[in-house]
Specification:
The complex is a heterodimer of chains A (341) and B (258). Chain A has 341 residues and is mainly alpha-helical. Chain A is built from 14 helices and no strands. Chain A has a single domain (71-308, 315-334), classed as ABC transporter involved in vitamin B12 uptake, BtuC, CATH 1.10.3470.10. In chain A, α3 (57-90) runs antiparallel to α11, α4 crosses α11 (240-262) and α8 (199-218) runs antiparallel to α11. Chain B has one domain (2-234): Rossmann fold. In chain B, 33% of the residues lie in helices and 24% in strands. In chain B, strands 6-7-8-3-9-10 form a 6-stranded mixed β-sheet, sandwiched between helices. A 4-stranded antiparallel β-sheet of chain B has the order 2-1-4-5, covered by helices on one side. In chain B, α4 (112-124) crosses α5 (140-153). The chains are: A mainly alpha (341), B alpha/beta (258). Chain A binds chain B through residues 1, 3, 88-89, 92-94, 218, 220-221, 224-225, 227-229, 231-232, 234-239, 277, 281-283, 285, 338-341, and chain B through 48-50, 70-75, 77-79, 81, 85-91, 93-94, 98-99, 101-102, 104, 107-110, 112, 115-116, 134-137, 154.
Chain lengths: 341, 258
């Protein structure tokens, strides 16, 4: 007798959808790849062809441009969504997203510092983004503990304070930056996009997201108990402080790394967990993988739009907001009777 | 056997509980009575480990549970909260299975046997049909029963219930009290805070009346629930009457499927 057959099937279907979209996405873009070129590449790869694969333009586009980009989009979408699902549950608040503890704002500030005050290499940008993202969460956490350690609403409010502070500092940096040389770089970086992504970015992001996701998956049962509220979870023997801290640390890690790679990608971390919850329910055994697959799928879809709607690429956060905001409005209206379950 | 010794708790220098002493045997239903702010909830929170008492001991079979790890304490004491909706709702069966958590090691997930046990408990409480329903979309009385089922899943000998009847209608109110009595006969110790002295009188073995954090009176209901004690506890004139008024109460056990 199984209790969650339909949920398991749905999660597998989501994975299948992501997998199919992944393949399709490799063939979307300005450079059209024909079946004939694919056939040549295939023979090259299995060693049946005399020609050198590195001379093949289609292969270069696929391997050096599209593959790292598509994989990174999936990583970022998954990371934002899975940490969004965990955050919403820890704070028992359907309006919480990775932005809320000041992570995104702090990491965005870090990106700007990295671009403006170091040589702008990707390692520095990642490092400063991570540092400032973590610092923002640390400040949020400390501020809420100073006010009242037990109250999660205060934590959310503290997050808003720290996010505003980070955004103000970011504006200050932008204001001070050279408007011709430096400012456009910072603005476009933070508007978000995957055009600059190569294998190097992917390799930097990959271990962080895998570790973070793995830890959240380990905590899936504790997260279920957290749905009941901290007092009830505690009465059932959950070490709530420890679980909360682990979720905050590893989600922060994933969100800062994503911001460093792709800029501030809004809405995904808020909306996708709701869609996933709507489809597979609140059990985190299914909800976390569903959020990850769905987040990868949605962001990939939007990135495909971003790079194919017009000749120039549209920054990803514009698309995520244009689609995410009305969709969230729809969710609020359609779910008003049943709560968020 | 539960023994509370000299339990005191204060918050911001004001005393909430002062030198609480009592003991409970297995199979006793003990009710805490008292006005709002008399310390009932604080006492229950100390028992759960949500608040650390300033002084005193809570001994279960001689072991002071204040120092226990969270899971070890949860194996000994189960809490039935007031029924409430969750922001993100689980299926009823998932809610009940959560009660097994104190018995799982870290990173252990509930297994099939736990789900089977949860089904048995739902069946015993006659709410098996709710199994796959959304916890937020059943009635308040049903939710309270599911929370009791979860506490039973926890297998602990002591059950704490903080005003379990407060949101319930007349029938469900008595139904829950009825179930508490059955649990008592299964040798569980039940400690509950109640608002209604009439319910307390009807169902409890022992009554503890709290006033301003101190025990005003404790003992068998007939002995403790006097006009003087109740008037003192609630700070108003209270009279007892045997025949002067009509009173309504169920005369038969509630039908199980009711």
């Amino acid at each position: 007798m199984e209790y969650d057959v339909s949920e398991k099937i749905k999660v597998r279907l989501m994975f299948a959808a992501l997998f199919i979209l992944f393949f399709l996405s490799l063939f979307i873009g300005n450079y059209k790849i024909s079946l004939e070129q694919l056939r040549v590449i295939f023979y090259n790869l299995i060693g049946q062809s005399a020609s050198d694969i590195s001379d093949n333009a289609a292969w270069s586009v696929l391997y050096y441009i599209r593959l790292p980009r598509v994989l990174t989009v999936i990583l970022v979408g998954s990371a934002l969504s899975i940490s969004g699902a965990a955050y919403q549950n820890i704070f028992r608040n359907p309006l919480v997203s990775p932005d809320i503890l000041g992570v995104s704002a702090g990491a965005g500030l870090g990106v700007a510092i990295g671009l403006l005050y170091t040589d702008g290499s990707i390692l520095y940008v990642y490092f400063t983004a991570f540092l400032l993202g973590s610092l923002a969460v640390f400040l949020t956490y400390s501020l809420s503990r100073l006010a009242d350690g037990q109250n999660n609403m205060l934590m959310v409010l503290s997050g808003i304070v720290i996010a505003s502070l980070s955004n103000a500092l970011l504006s200050l940096l932008k204001y001070l930056a050279d408007p011709m040389e430096e400012l456009p770089g910072v603005v476009f970086y933070l508007l978000g996009g995957f055009a600059r992504i190569g294998w190097q970015e992917f390799y930097l992001l990959f271990p962080i997201i895998v570790i973070g996701t793995f830890i959240l998956l380990i905590l899936r049962w504790q997260l279920n108990l957290f749905t009941l509220g901290e007092e009830e979870a505690l009465s059932l023997g959950v070490n709530t402080e420890r679980v909360k801290l682990a979720v905050i640390i590893f989600s922060t890690m994933m969100v800062s790394a994503s911001t460093a790679a792709a800029g501030q990608v809004s809405w995904i971390g808020l909306v996708v967990p709701h869609i996933a919850r709507f489809m597979v329910g609140t059990n985190h055994k299914h909800l976390l993988p569903a959020s990850a697959f769905m987040g990868g799928f949605m962001l990939l879809l939007m990135d495909n739009l971003a790079r194919s709607i017009s000749g120039a690429e549209i920054p990803i956060s514009i698309i995520t907001a244009l689609i995410g905001a009305p969709f969230f409005a729809y969710l609020i209206i359609s779910r008003r009777e049943s709560g968020w379950s | 056997m539960l023994k509370i010794e000299n339990l005191s708790f204060s918050y911001n220098k004001s005393t909430i509980l002062k030198e609480i002493n009592f003991h409970a045997k297995n199979g006793e239903l003990i009710t805490l009575l008292g006005a709002n702010g008399s310390g009932k909830t604080t006492f229950l929170k100390c028992m759960q480990g949500l608040l650390s008492p300033e002084a005193g001991k809570i001994l279960i079979d001689g072991e002071n549970i204040i120092q226990l790890e969270k899971k070890d304490r949860a194996q000994k004491i189960a809490v039935v909260p007031q029924e409430h909706k969750n922001i993100f709702a689980h299926k009823v069966i998932d809610m009940v299975v959560m009660g097994v958590n104190p018995w799982l090691s870290f990173n252990e997930q509930p297994k099939k046997e736990h789900y089977l046990r949860a089904e048995e408990i739902l069946d015993e409480l006659n709410i098996y049909s709710l199994k796959d329903k959304n916890f937020n979309r059943i009635s308040g009385g049903e939710r309270q029963l599911v929370l009791i089922a979860r506490a039973l899943m926890q297998k602990s000998n002591i059950l704490l219930l903080d005003e379990p009847n407060s949101h319930l209608d007349f029938k469900n109110m008595h139904h829950i009290m009825d179930i508490m009595q059955q649990l008592k006969f299964n040798n569980k110790t039940i400690i509950t805070a109640l608002h209604d002295p009439n319910l307390a009188y009807r169902y409890s073995d022992k009554i503890i009346i709290l006033k301003e954090g101190r025990i005003l009176a404790r003992g068998a209901a007939e002995k403790v629930m006097t006009e003087e004690n109740l008037s003192e506890a609630y700070n108003m004139k209270i009279s007892t009457a045997k025949t002067a008024f009509l009173s309504f109460f169920p005369t038969s056990k509630l039908k199980k499927d009711a």
